[in-house]
Design goal:
Layout (H helix, E strand, L loop, with lengths): L5 E4 L4 H12 L4 E5 L4 E2 L8 H5 L4 E5 L7 H10 L4 E5 L17 H12 L4 E7 L12 H6 L1 E4 L5 E2 L4 H13 L6 E5 L5 E2 H12 L4 E4 L2 H10 L4 H16 L8 H6 L6 H10 L6
Parallel strand pairs: 1-2, 1-4, 2-3, 4-5, 5-6, 6-9, 7-11
Antiparallel strand pairs: 8-10
């Protein structure tokens, strides 16, 4: 299938960008699709789907949270002759105690997983936990650069997984045999508290960065004061809940199962990110 382009949706995001880069490093043709990417693709505009899928035999799906668009997209991919599919999902979706779902995304994710399993294609599901890159590119990045991360996470911990490992698992599933029918839960090698994580980043970046635990109500009020609607502020607080409760602290074996090696430690992520100027003010 190497002569066919490999479709990567969400190609400007944390995992999609790295998947596309790792595929290209292997000399494989990539169709990097996103609303503002090399190939224009919009989940909410089905008129963009066919051009994304034309000639594709393998694809990586990063779904649009809160929607059930993966099922019709997969059905169209089958009609286009796709053979192999990797879906980005998430840890905890089958655990009712994992987190509140005030944002209403769980039903869509579960339907997406069912859709790929029922597709008749060679499917693999990637279920990563909290990304280490949330400290450098995502939720926490601006606060970390500013020197103070305020979260309603208490002394909770998570087994943060490096997005480079996530991408490596996806690339293996897209390009190698032996991954069909597997659901890979992905984590780092051990749980790290927010205090530990920020101290590690502080050491790597060579400047003081603090983690300040705050009550949920104070966090929500801060976000509302910054202009966020109360419902959205509450949803952000719910996203943090697994950190506070420690429900994402357990270690999964997916990286080792897929790649035959251990996942990258958080300290290594912090060191390489700092060296690349990831927290430069």
């Amino acid at each position: 299938m190497s002569e066919h382009p490999i479709l990567v949706t969400g190609a400007t995001g944390k995992s999609g960008r790295r998947v596309a880069g790792q595929l290209r490093a292997k000399g494989l043709p990539v169709r990097a699709a996103a609303r503002n990417g090399e190939h224009v693709f919009d989940w909410t505009d089905s008129r963009t789907w066919d051009s994304a899928l034309e000639g594709v035999r393998s694809l990586y799906i990063v779904q649009l949270d809160g929607t059930k668009l993966v099922r019709p997209f997969v059905e169209r991919a089958v009609r286009h002759g796709a053979r192999r599919i990797v879906l980005a999902s998430g840890r905890g979706i089958d655990d009712p105690d994992y987190a509140n779902d005030s944002g209403g995304v769980l039903d869509g994710i579960l339907d997406s997983e069912a859709a790929v399993r029922e597709s008749g294609l060679e499917w693999t599901i990637s279920r990563p936990g909290w990304f280490a890159q949330n400290f450098s590119e995502g939720f926490f990045a601006d606060a970390v650069r500013a020197g103070e991360l305020r979260l309603p996470a208490g002394d909770g911990a998570a087994s943060f997984v490096d997005a480079e490992d996530i991408a490596a698992v996806v690339v293996a599933a897209l390009t190698e045999d032996g991954h069909a029918g597997h659901t890979y839960e992905l984590s780092g090698p051990r749980a790290v508290t927010l205090t530990e994580a920020v101290a590690t980043i502080s050491t790597a970046a060579g400047r003081e960065i603090r983690y300040v635990p705050v009550p949920v109500a104070e966090y929500v009020a801060d976000l509302v004061h910054q202009g966020l609607p109360p419902a959205d502020a509450g949803a952000f607080a719910d996203v943090i809940e697994p950190l506070r409760k420690g429900t994402d602290a357990y270690v999964s074996d997916g990286v080792h199962r897929a790649l035959g090696r251990p996942p990258r430690p958080f300290a290594e992520f912090a060191k390489s990110t700092a060296a690349a100027g990831g927290w430069r003010v």
